[in-house]
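Re: export button greyed out
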Amino acid sequence: MNVEPTLFVLAMLSYLAGFICHSLSASLARASLYDWGRRAVWAGALLATGGLLLRWNEAGHPPLSNMYESMVSLSTFLAWVTLLFTRSTPIPLAEAGAGVVAVLMIGIGSLFARDTRPLIPALQSYWLHLHVSIAFLGEAAFALSFVLSYLFCLRRFLEDPASPSPGFPPATATERLACTGIVFGLPGLFLLSMAGLAWRLASQPHPDRDATTLVVWVILPLAVTLAALVAAAFHFRGAVGKAIERWLPPADLLDDFTYRAIALGFPLFTVGALIFGMVWANKAWGRYWGWDPKETWALITFLVYSIYLHVRLTRGWQGTWTAVLSVLGFLVTMFTLFGVNLLLSGLHSYATF
Amino acid sequence: MRLLRKLLVSLRTAIILIALLSALSVIGTLIPQQREGPFYLANYPRLHPGILALGFDDLYHGRLFLGVLGLLSLSTLACTHTRIKLTRRRFFRRLATATPAEIMSMPVAQRFAPGQVPDFPGFGESGRTTEDGTRLDLRVTGRPALLGSPLLHLGFLLILLGGLGGHLFGVEMGITGVAGEKVAIPPVEAVRAAARADRLRRQGRELQRLNPQDPTLSRLQQEIEVLEAIYHAGLASPAFRLHFVDLWVDYHEGTASTATPMIKAWNTRVEVITADGPASGAVLRVNEPFSHGDYTFYQADWAPQYRTVDLLVQPNPRATAPADLGGEPRRLRLTLGEPFAPAWSSQTFLLLDFLPDFKIMGKQFVSVSNNLNNPAARIVAYNPDGSLAGHAWGFSARMSEMGHFFSDLPCQFVVEDAQPTFQSGLQVCHDPFAPLVWLGCWIMVGGLAMTFYLPYFEEWVVRRPNGMTLIAVAGNRPAATLRQRLAGLAQEVGTGNGGSPQGTPHARTPSAPVAAIPPTPPQTSDEPPKEPPR
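Workaround output, generated via the alternate export path:
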């Protein structure tokens, strides 16, 4: 019996349970709920890791060779990175957000072919293990930084300009506009991208991929949930405003942890995606750099996070604009992972399906 | 000169250049690169003049992109130089250059009133007393972390320089061969000349399209001829010859005989033949290159070539006088380019062309893949006197009726089978600057690890002449870690934790997490300048 898909479904359910417990612990301030949420995420991460190891054993190569395996691996790395980051400093809503991202990653990954196949000649190299796994570790840290930055922007968007978060000046009109754009624009952008993916899947019928699944299981539930959340937040805006302090982590903590996640992810991504990628490309294709779209977008990701680190470490920037840069960096990361494979043709096209 | 240096060291300049480089890179991935002018005219009817004028058709080798990359390299060079100076001062003369004001402004610090702290003996190293009588004591741990940032920038710079060197002096070419073939490998200079001639030819075509009378065209033509002469001279006296000894495919276990065999490896056994005879050899596979002399060879391409085709010959019902084949269809095996006269016919047949997966595009017959999906063979027949008898296209059995319409011979042909022979494509490269790139990569990895993962702490004890004491901790760790270190320092100097802290640790519960203060960057300058050096 093939147990590994069951393990991934159970992992997804555990992440969902973790999300619910963490969200409730943030809103009800119950430490016991937080502990249960953490146990659920631990269980999810262990189940997913078990599933990946089984798949590795079955296929004879690490589960990093197609989009499905990549997304499940990335979501598992995200769960572990989140558990590591919050081991001594609980940030319930960030942990809840990371759980949602992990679930979405597995959900989107399951749209692609799930069968195990022998590796094509280009992928038969130990550099596959090093290049992809280390790059994914970095991307998992970027995903966590994205969740933290989103929460930072949400906090700045919700807080009263007259009493800003300690350590931060009142948000300017431009900052508020940027925060509003991120708070509402990102879910919109995500739904739009998913609609685009559904359209693409529908226009290119394939036995392993079904657009209906995406519409029924991702787009519709997410659109309804988001609409309900926005309506509820608007209806109870007074109560929401008062409860910010209880629900959302302090702005300085979010800002600091965003930096820490990027400081962890940046070297991993640089070494894994760029440097090991160069070494492997040189070994397989005879040149370390060829301006292939995937290479170029990995470089763009590196450059965006370089800007973040330069303005943060040298200029001392903190707050909304570094959060915006962190969000932008993650969007570029996701485009490098998804957009390049689905929209642009290049030497990495084998990684799509 | 000073203004230029200031401009290059400026963080703002670097950010603008990085952003510009990112934007140009994005454009390069959206517009297909290195196509001919008509492609852009057809696909970007409105934008194509701009694309060609700005060089976006070959963006990564164009002046704009290389200019930005060059400026970023200069900026990184200037910044690396500044960083090395700052690091040297911080590494060797931290205590000598620090000011009490700087230490007192550190975010993780604690002040004590006179008499609250017993006499502190120092850290076992000599401290320093400033002109106003303030005593400074410093303990540094993890000093190598300071080297991280300069190394990171130095590594990046070396990679850029190596890339530039590779672009200017490296060569790349593709060769193909079938089993038994010996391919001449010209010297590096000849290949470089050929690549340069190709670039000039492309440039010439664009110029000619814009202005056929352009006076630079003749100069380009002359230059191309000189370069081609160098290339042909190289071909005439090659560095060595590469003998394609054997070519074969390995399949994954159990898939070789299935409908979709899964390829495990394409193998090309090669042997280098120099003027003195066979020199060296290897089996080339993807991810397993082979080097000889100035070149490294990579398995890059693999295609079946169909040279021998089995045909069924039948009378053509549309011909005015269909061939008399004795009531039975005849079988014929033809090899590309080799005339064959069967005993049952007075005519000689020649296989001119074979398309394994043919499609009709416009008025042309083309093959869309190398897979034997929909074969088509073009045959020409000659009479015994050597005159042309006619042409015919033969198709697979399921499309045999088409053969009636594409034959002006008394017979028609059906393609029964075709035997593939493999053709291996190798990428041949020479990049004398690659070692510089790998050195840069190693240095960059070291720099990244030192900057982001190696902990660095400065622990300060400042005693004012008025008896006031200040302890402070700075470093590249999170504020919570610095505060823990501060508490330890407070214990060490014998105060407990009873002073008036500047950064107070909070209780850690899910609803009240730590309010962290961001860590101090490891490269802060002594006096924060308006535009700090990177």
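The two ends of chain B are 19 Å apart (CA to CA). The button fix ships in the next patch.
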